[in-house]
Amino acid sequence: MSTEPPWPERYGRVVLDSVDSTNAEAARMAPELDYPTWILAHEQAAPRGRRGNRWSMPPGNFAATLVMRPGGVPGWAALRGFMAGVALFEALALYVDRTRLSLKWPNDVLLDQGKVAGILLESAGKGGQVDWLAIGIGVNLTAAPTEIRDAAFPPVSVAEQTDIRIDPEQLLVRLAGFYATQEDILTQLGFEPIRESWLRHAARLGEIITARTSQGEVIGRFETIDDAGQLVLETEDGPKLIPAAEIYF
Ligand SMILES: O=C(O)CCCC[C@@H]1SC[C@@H]2NC(=O)N[C@@H]21
């Protein structure tokens, strides 16, 4: 891959040797932000994962956060997790055979059925309006963390699964390009084409899966995601819409 694509217009870029967490840095930068900005760090001392979990970042892995002030209601901002998932899928597919990659709802990337990347959305706002949104993306490029949290989806890394070495800064340029395209699609055509792209790469679509929610488990056929990104399961009691859950295959 010799030619470097251009950095997308109207996006800033900050590259740090080390930080506590790129999402924490995003929150600090947000009040002064003029335009959406990618923050990449080569080291994170306190990376965070979804649901209050810690995220582990062995050296050489990818850690970046896109911080923006998109305005609008939280549900609309949350669609950007799917946009980031599609963009990350496309960026990784420049290096790795795309048939080995898939998207696990809501926004993990799987490589050979193991978790290779996770996305953490954090936001703040008031009066029902989003003030800022941080889309934090971690990709196991060189090594998977050794502490296995989710035995159903053991962490894997690109290097260990494929022998392919990806430079984090090079991946960022490609990811930022694909992400900017997703924003253009959202502006011009709405969420529907993004929903369709996400579904094309979805893991286990049409199969029976288990969603573990705060109210218990729901088992059903993974039919689709709706226009708010909710999981739609066809269960014995009819269709169920699930806004938040961990899913198991
Ligand atoms: O739990 C998950 O699946 C989401 C993990 C997200 C990790 C990334 S690494 C870059 C950004 N900064 C953080 O502190 N977390 C996210």
UniProtKB/TrEMBL annotation:
Sorted UniProt keywords: Biotin, Ligase
The EC number(s) this enzyme carries: 6.3.4.15
InterPro entries linked to this entry: aa-tRNA-synth_II/BPL/LPL, Biotin_CoA_COase_ligase, BPL_C, BPL_LPL_catalytic
Presence of keyword RNA-binding: no
Gene3D superfamilies named among the record's database cross-references: Bira Bifunctional Protein, Domain 2
Domain BPL/LPL catalytic per the UniProt entry, residue ranges: 9-187
PROSITE patterns, alphabetized: BPL_LPL_CATALYTIC (PS51733)
GO cellular component, one term: cytoplasm
Gene Ontology molecular function: any one: biotin--[biotin carboxyl-carrier protein] ligase activity
Catalytic activity: biotin + L-lysyl-[protein] + ATP = N(6)-biotinyl-L-lysyl-[protein] + AMP + diphosphate + H(+)
NCBIfam families: birA_ligase
Protein name per UniProt: biotin--[biotin carboxyl-carrier protein] ligase
Native source species: Mesobaculum littorinae
